[in-house]
From TrEMBL:
The gene is codA. Keywords: Hydrolase. It comes from Amphritea japonica ATCC BAA-1530. This is Cytosine deaminase. Residues 26-145 form the CMP/dCMP-type deaminase domain. Its EC number is 3.5.4.1. One of its GO terms (molecular function) is cytosine deaminase activity.
Length: 184
């Protein structure tokens, strides 16, 4: 069942073409490919990339929450910030993160502290996303959040819907896996 769904998503991705009117479409399609890889490996279908001032992708990460037992922190954004802090050859203030799903509260907190100039998310997440509610963070965090640009990505609707669908695939199964770790 899940495999059929994943095969359909791969087919949709292969048929989508970047629309030149939307500057994030090419990178957005790349993020969808990484997100599909995360999904195929039994994780949440979410991925993120870091883009430098010249538009070059300098790092990438996929959700890895269930890759080694259970790693609650292993969201795509967190793993990418780890790479940055361990030493990427680019100052954070020159970087943009593109992420396939709106960041959650945990990731938003860390993004705010990362120094990354801009964060663009592809699919909004009305159930778990925090980036569109950053004004509800405590004052110190809210103030720091104002130093970072938060946007929805400049992508065509086909790419946005695909990113949302990849993130929504296998959610029932993944929720069960999560609960088996936090309420065994
Ligand atoms: N935005 C995200 C939500 C959940 N998991 C992730 O890796 N990313």
């Amino acid at each position: 069942m899940a495999e059929v769904l994943i095969a359909e998503l791969i087919q949709r991705l292969d048929q989508l073409e970047a629309d030149a009117d939307y500057p994030d479409d090419i990178n957005g399609l790349y993020c969808c490919r990484l997100a599909l890889d995360a999904l195929e490996q039994g994780n949440y279908g979410i991925a993120a990339i870091l883009i430098d001032a010249q538009g070059k992708v300098i790092a990438q990460a996929e959700n890895r929450v269930f890759s080694a037992g259970y790693s609650s922190h292993a969201h795509a954004e967190m793993l990418l910030i780890d790479q940055l802090e361990q030493g990427l050859d680019c100052p954070p203030e020159e970087l943009t993160m593109l992420v396939s799903l709106e960041p959650c509260p945990m990731c938003l907190a860390r993004l705010i502290l990362s120094g990354i100039a801009s964060v663009r998310y592809m699919a909004p997440d009305s159930y778990g996303g925090m980036m569109s509610h950053a004004e509800r963070f405590p004052p110190a965090w809210k103030n720091l959040a104002q130093l970072q640009n938060h946007y929805e990505a400049y992508i065509s609707s086909g790419v946005r819907v695909l990113a949302a669908d990849i993130a929504a695939t296998n959610l029932g199964l993944l929720r069960k896996k999560l609960l088996s770790h936090i309420r065994p």
